């Protein structure tokens, strides 16, 4: 029987991040093909409360670790010490900030290769294949481990989370966290002033570019996003100008997003921007220049002045919602 599939789960007070349920779905599918068990590993306060939802999404075993998930060194050591003895074929994380921080540490501790930001996982002849975009999304490679274990992170929104109740009762276990080898001490976690919809997890994103001419004009982007229940993104030009925080930036040096719908308003479509959003399911571009490169990638394009188009679009969405209320 193949070694286990271990999925590292991100949670806050027992509430599991959707990106982790997506990773668990991917992991459970791989485990089913390998004939292996799926183990979910959860750190931090409230971890035990997550067991039911993890069991419903394919975890046969849930291991909780009494370690602060924000303390990456301690969390990675504890997870590696839990995963190692299970001789895992695959260790999965979500490609969130948490996963990006922990993944390389866990891979290092397990002496295993890391495939980051994967959009698909499959099994071929008993080994796990991880599919990941490279060269800013221009090419895609399949990665397999030459050793026994592969550590991989899954791009949020690339795989739909689905319920997959495990065959038997979910086994819960707790493991103690190691205290050795701490290279850093976590002193404080500063919460963002506003709890915003996380860009990488949003189903719909409305992004604005330099063509909006000033930060005040993001009000109309916010208004459209509000009607659509969307997150607001931005191009780097906008972030560099100080109109929006860096956490809003989409692209090669910002966030990689994969929503169902991405609306790019007054964004030219530079290759570095496309690198962060090209795997979106549907792309709508609003730009007054019919030659703007964004139109080459867009599924739907509106050639027009954003200052006319966006308020009309917002109104149309509002009316549609009212008609279906
Ligand atoms: C190493 C490196 C990394 C980078 N990383 C990123 C990254 O992560 N993300 C990113 O976005 N960029 C990144 N860039 C920058 C990138 O090359 C572009 O400069 C940037 O994306 C341009 O932003 P923009 O489309 O908002 O602005 P512009 O290129 O200036 O485009 C503005 C667009 O608005 C349109 N417009 C103007 N007025 C209106 C109007 N009234 N109505 C409708 N449309 C209008 C114009 O036609 C134009 O197409 C990077 C660059 C480098 C070199």
Question: Can you walk me through this structure?
Answer:
The protein is α/β, with parallel strands linked by helices and 325 residues long. Helices cover 29% and strands 25% of the residues. It folds into 2 domains: 5-175, 3-Layer(aba) Sandwich (Rossmann fold), CATH 3.40.50; 199-323, TPP-binding domain (Rossmann fold, 3-Layer(aba) Sandwich), CATH 3.40.50. The chain has helices at 18-34, 51-56, 72-83, 97-110, 218-228, 236-240, 271-277, 294-297, 306-323; strands spanning 5-9, 11-12, 15-16, 38-43, 61-65, 90-94, 114-118, 120-124, 127-134, 139-143, 150-154, 171-175, 204-208, 231-234, 261-265, 282-287, 300-303. The strands form 4 sheets. The chain has a 7-stranded parallel sheet with strand order 7-11-6-1-4-5-12, with helices on both faces. A 5-stranded parallel sheet has the order 14-13-15-16-17. Helix 5 links the parallel strand 13 and strand 14. The longest helix has 18 residues, at 306-323. The structure holds flavin-adenine dinucleotide. Flavin-adenine dinucleotide is lined by residues 209-211, 235-238, 249-254, 266-268, 270, 272-273, 276, 286-289, 292, 305-307.
């Amino acid at each position: 029987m193949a070694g286990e599939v271990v999925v590292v789960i991100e949670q806050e007070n027992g509430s599991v991040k959707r990106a982790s349920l997506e990773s668990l779905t991917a992991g459970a599918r791989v485990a089913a093909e390998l004939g292996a068990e799926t183990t979910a590993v959860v750190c931090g306060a409230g971890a035990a409360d997550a067991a039911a939802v993890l069991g419903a999404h394919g975890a046969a075993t849930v291991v909780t670790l009494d370690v602060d998930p924000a303390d990456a060194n301690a969390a990675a050591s504890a997870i590696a010490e839990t995963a190692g003895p299970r001789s895992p074929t695959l260790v999965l994380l979500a490609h969130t900030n948490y996963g990006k921080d922990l993944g390389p540490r866990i891979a290092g501790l397990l002496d295993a290769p890391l495939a980051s930001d994967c959009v698909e996982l499959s099994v071929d002849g008993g080994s796990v294949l991880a599919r990941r975009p490279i060269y800013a999304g221009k090419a895609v490679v399949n990665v397999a481990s030459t050793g026994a274990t592969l550590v991989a992170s899954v791009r949020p929104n690339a795989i739909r989370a689905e319920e997959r109740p495990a065959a038997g009762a979910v086994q819960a276990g707790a493991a103690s966290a190691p205290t050795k080898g701490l290279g850093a001490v976590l002193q404080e976690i500063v919460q963002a002033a506003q709890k915003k919809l996380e860009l990488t997890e949003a189903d719909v994103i409305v992004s604005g570019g330099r063509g909006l001419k000033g930060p005040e004009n993001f009000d109309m982007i916010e208004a459209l996003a509000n009607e659509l229940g969307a997150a607001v993104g931005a191009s780097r030009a906008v972030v560099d100008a100080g109109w929006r925080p860096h956490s809003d930036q989409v692209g090669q040096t910002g966030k990689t997003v994969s929503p169902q719908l991405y609306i790019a308003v007054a964004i030219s479509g530079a290759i570095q921007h496309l690198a962060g959003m090209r795997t979106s399911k549907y792309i709508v571009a609003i730009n007054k220049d019919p030659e703007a490169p964004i139109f080459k990638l867009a599924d739907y394009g509106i050639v027009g002045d954003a200052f006319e188009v966006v308020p009309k679009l917002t109104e149309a969405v509002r009316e549609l919602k009212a008609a279906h209320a």
